[in-house]
Design brief:
There is one protein chain. This protein is an alpha+beta fold and 109 residues long. The protein is built from 2 helices and 3 strands. The relative contact order is 0.12.
Length: 109
């Protein structure tokens, strides 16, 4: 009997630990699903390694980027930088529109 009580206590503690872990994991997964549902594709650009990167990012409101699609990398010294940047922004805006479902929500579409 003296051996059974500590083993039973250990089993209960182990079971409680496993249940807590599974519960926290389920809560985290639910939070991630809600963030993905609220996320929208947005046009962005930033400097990286001597180039301007034009991309579309999937981000929830006020959250970190969940995914990124790079449209173009333009070297900072490129003589056609402005032309390439404006063209890349147009492509990124069109891509974001389509990735967000674009015309699917328009009446008569």
């Amino acid at each position: 009997m003296r051996v059974v009580v500590p083993l039973l206590g250990l089993g209960v503690a182990l079971g409680a630990t496993i249940l807590t872990y599974l519960l926290l994991r389920a809560v985290g997964a639910g939070r991630e699903r809600r963030a993905r549902r609220a996320a929208r594709w947005q046009v962005t650009h930033h400097g990286r390694d001597g180039a301007t990167v034009v991309a579309v990012v999937l981000a929830p409101p006020g959250g970190r980027a969940l995914d990124e699609h790079v449209v173009e990398r333009i070297p900072d010294g490129d003589p056609e930088w402005t032309t390439r940047f404006l063209r890349a922004r147009e492509v990124a805006e069109e891509r974001a529109f389509h990735l967000n479902g674009g015309a699917a929500g328009l009446p008569g579409g």
